[in-house]
Amino acid sequence: MKIAEMYIMQHKVVLRVVSKFLIPFILLxxxxxxxxxxxxxxxxxxxxxxxxxxxxLYALIFGVDKTRQAVPAWITRCGLAxxxxxxxxxxxxxLFLGENFLNYNALAHDPxxxxxxxILLVELGVGVxxxxxxxxxxxxxxxxxxx
Amino acid sequence: xxxxxxxxxxxxxxxxxxxxTGLFSLLAAAIYILMDAxxxxxxxxxxxxxxxxxxxxxxxxxxxxxEKTTSKSRAVPAAxxxxxxxxxxxxxxxxxxxxxxxxxxxxQHVAPRYLNQSAxxxxxxxxxxxxxxxxxxYDTLGExxxxxxxxxxxxxxxxxxxxxxxxxxxxxxxxx
Lengths: 147, 176
Description:
Chain A contains six helices and no strands.
């Protein structure tokens, strides 16, 4: 069994090297899409998916167990809730600051700055939730077949 | 795209079908780019061609690789039904305005206000982001909750299986 696994791993050497080379750039691109979504195409949802795709690629090449070492289950499960919490929290914060739910004008003295801050936080919430949801779903599927 | 769609229908090997659906999504993303909907194309390429293909492959690994063949006697009613549905859908598109028509209802309602005012009100160069995250933030909050619920559902149905199986193994070993 062990010898067979080693044999398979040796034959994936190109995949392993290329994916190791690509994953940092995928993560970097995900972060770029996340923070640059205000100015170019993209935003929280796309960034979350790209960020999760890096981890899924890692899981495909190196196996689910190693991915679980990198991102433990509690991180993705907490991240799921934290993203929604950030989004809804921004809404509640604007309520306390005397505006309507999710009206970002109240977040800063200047309405435009408030809008910028609000959109940034909200996109962050979306990104965290989407990323964690994708990783969770993939690992739930991929981790199921193994004994 | 048509070619890919026909291939998806004809091929019985589900592995090829999954890869072809990924190709179909990529072509759809190219069409969105041609229509200047870069944000949508982005999502389609990342989700449709990337993550969902991988998820389908994961499902295939758990189930079987070949499609069950349906009996020939069902083919005729199915063909009639799909032709009728297709005809109704095409009839529905006849009333729609032409692509890029400035007089289309969708360009008359709130779109001009978003395009004209968002620079002063939000100050972001990307109007798509300001519509999504600010004007329509309730909808986006709802979408985030949908994704949250989806992940929760997957976790509730199959996510806990591993730990339980581990516990069962431990129990079996202690009994033996």
